[in-house]
Amino acid sequence: QVQLVESGGGLVQAGGSLTLSCVASGNIETINHMAWFRQAPGNQRELVANIILDGSTTYADSVKGRFLISRDDAKNTGYLQMNSLKPEETGVYYCNAGVTTTYAVQFEFDFWGQGTQVTVSS
Question: What contacts 12, CB < 8 A, 6 or more positions away?
């Protein structure tokens, strides 16, 4: 199986920066996409950013120009650099990855990390 472990969350003042990491481990063949979602209590989980195998990225409109998603395939790790954070961006940030495994190389499975809390104070 594949496991995603997130880290880097914490408390930051509005306007500050934080970088999240997502380390994938297990029987990995390829990681086709790595994405970050945010969920606040009472809110729906929403996509923040995504990066696919060729390095192409997409961002939610609200974070364009402030957040940067990246990946280090040698380390099976994804990152989300968050700059100029806003209080409304407080929430639990989850890593999501689309993975092909060595035991099922023709199929992609989605995996989720445990989430890491990001709190932006005003």
Answer: 18, 85, 118, 119, 120, 121
